[in-house]
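Residues determine shape. Next comes a sample protein:
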Amino acid sequence: MTAAIDVGLKRIGLAINPYLDIVLPQKAIFRKNREQAAREVNDFLKEWKVTKLIVGIPKSGKSAEEMQIRIKHFVSLLDFDKDKIEFYEEYGSSVEAKELIKGEIKEKRDGRIDSLAAKIILERWLLNQKCSK
């Protein structure tokens, strides 16, 4: 199974691809510290028997370089085969996620936007895989 994570400073959005083109957002992980968040992501990866992990990463923007360093450090804490991790452009995924649920929720810090962003990243990656075949 393929999964995606959208690593943020406060929350980590999660999504899975259980079958064909179906991508489902999962409950986000709230970061208290890196170790706790890495433990919870590892539990998620084991629970869903994830074989490929797509990690959203900014390729451009004001703080892209700093976030790339932070995200790569976080991913290095995961107990997951590094050869099965792929970093994929996340540009605009959070903005798109906010637009999709505009007016539906008042509390934006509950993690739904983060996991919807992970879903968007994974959908884009899947589409790219399909197009490159």
Notes: The first strand starts at residue 2 and ends at 7.
